[in-house]
Amino acid sequence: MTAPLLTLLRCPHTNQRLLPVTSEEIAHFEQLRIAGQLSYRSGAPIALPLESALINESRTLLYVVESGIPILLPDEAVLLE
User: 63: exposed, middle or buried (C-beta count within 10 Å: 0-12, 13-18, 19+)?
Assistant: First the structure.
């Protein structure tokens, strides 16, 4: 994802900027996903492995990036606590 595009994207819930998730964070979130401890706000499990994601500035909502496309649908956000 290009830097100019990233500056335009906002969290649909908080209107905060979205930041790229580091590879270390992806590995951590992937372990949580495998353990069944990470799901979408809708309650649906995250079926595909996490390869890339964006996180809001307050680090409370995670958005999966699939094939280079950020999924910014409200029910597809991952609530982090």
Answer: buried
Helix (H, G, I), strand (E, B) or coil at 42: coil
Which two structure tokens, joined as six digits, stand for 72?
A: 């910014």
Domain that holds residue 33: 3-79
Question: How many Cα atoms occupy the beta-carbon half-sphere of 36 within 13 Å?
Answer: 0
> What is the rounded distance in angstroms from the CA atom of residue 41 to the CA atom of residue 43?
5
Whether 30 contacts 18, CB under 8 Å: no
pTM given for the model? 0.90
Can you give the C-alpha Rg of the chain in angstroms? Answer: 12
The tens digit of pLDDT for each residue in 26-43 reads 999 999 999 999 999 999
Q: Encoding tokens for residue 66?
A: 């699939």
Domain count, the chain: 1
Give the angle 34-40-41 at the CA atoms, nearest 5°: 145
